[in-house]
Amino acid sequence: MSDGFEVRPARAEDARAMAWVHVQGWRETYRGLLPDELLDDPGFLPRRERFWTTALTGERWTTHRFAVAESGGSVIGIAGSAPAEEEEWDVHLNMLYLLSEHHGGGAGTALLQAVVEPHESAALWVADPNPRAQAFYRKHGFVPDGVSKVEDGVRDLRMVRAAAS
């Protein structure tokens, strides 16, 4: 426990709470970048809950690392990583969402450290523009490598970090 939150590995029984944080994280992060119809779709939360139930129980996901941050008995953040498909990096950070009311309190850093070890090189995709997230990742040693892509109308930048020596 640190500063009113605890970070721990995610468990199957966290699927519903993780889905809620995932959806809320998208709404807080991507409003204005993604269509409101997508973010406000009544089926969005049930789809995320099915995803998390599968990810936390399915054999295919055993090489992934999932963590949650809790405060006051509620999940306030989620993170996930997997072995990188690109040979240049050890790990790919697939997601890190923290409810905006908890930004700046250290939970984001703890979530990142829970799913990406300091000795691992890592890559991630971050929406552009998303200056807060980009600054967070820069603070943790990630830098844009000049590669970008557009997916679902959103431009993403790839950021990478070398393994700590």
TrEMBL record:
UniProt xrefs under CDD domains: NAT_SF
GO MF, any single term: acyltransferase activity, transferring groups other than amino-acyl groups
Domain of life: Bacteria
InterPro entries cross-referenced by the UniProt entry: Acyl_CoA_acyltransferase, Bact_Acetyltransf, GNAT_dom
Domain N-acetyltransferase stretches: 5-164
Keyword Protein biosynthesis carried by entry: no
Keyword line: Acyltransferase, Transferase
UniProt-listed Pfam families: Acetyltransf_1
Stored PANTHER family: ACETYLTRANSFERASE, AMINOALKYLPHOSPHONATE N-ACETYLTRANSFERASE-RELATED-RELATED
Protein name (record): GNAT family N-acetyltransferase
